[in-house]
Specification:
Elements: E1 19-21, E2 24-26, H1 43-55, H2 75-83, E3 89-93, H3 97-112, E4 117-128, E5 135-136, H4 143-151, E6 155-161, H5 163-170, H6 175-178, H7 183-192, H8 199-213
Parallel strand pairs: 3-4, 4-6
Antiparallel strand pairs: 1-2, 4-5
Helix pairs in contact: 1-2, 3-4, 7-8
Length: about 210
Amino acid sequence: MMNLKGNPELTPKNLMRPLKNYGIACMSMGFLIEETAPVVWRGLMVMSAVEKLLRQVDWGQLDYLVIDMPPGTGDVQLSVSQNIPIAGAVIVSTPQDVALLDAHKGAEMFRKVHVPVLGLVQNMSVFQCPKCKHETHIFGTDGVRDLAKTLGLDILGDVPLHINIRETCDSGQPVVISQPQSDAVKLTILRCTGSSYGPWERSQKQNRCLEGAS
C-alpha cells in the first residue's frame, strides 16, 4: 500500500532503519520475512516481534507513531497496550453485524487496559456507482454510527467502497497522494464532515479529515 519493499538497513548502533515513502517511515514484519511466508506466531513470539519493531528500530523524531493491528483482542493488542504508553486507539470497522461484534470487543478491551478510545471509523460505508452515482449500502447502513452511540464515542469518519481507493492502494500510490481531487477523496471528506453533525462538531470533523488527507 505504501509501495515499499526490501530489507531494512542497520545503523552503526545495530538498529533497523525504517523504509520511507511519501514522508512516512514504515516498519513491518513483512520487510523481515519472505513475501509469501506466513507469520504463525503466538504468545512469547508475538511479544518478542512487537518489542523488536518498537525498540530496535531507529524511528528518529516522530509526530505520531501509528500501529496497525489485526482485528480482535489477542496477543498483539495486549502486548502493545501493556508495554508502551498509548495516547489512544481508533477502531475501524465495516457496518456489518459480524464485524461490529469484533469492534465492540476491541473497544471494551482497550477501555479495560486503560487505553483511551478516540473514536470509530466506518470503512466501506457505501458504494457509489461510478456511472449513475446511485448509492448502495452493501454492508449495511450506519452500523458503526449506532455502535458509536452505544459506546458513547465519536465517529471520526466514513471511508467509501470505491474502486479508485482499491486500485491506488494496490499500486502503492494512496488515493490522497495520487488523486487528491478525485471523487473517492471528495466522497470520503464529505462523509467525514457529514450533515448529521452539529455546526461546531462538523467543523472539527472537517479539520481532522482535511489534515488526514493532506
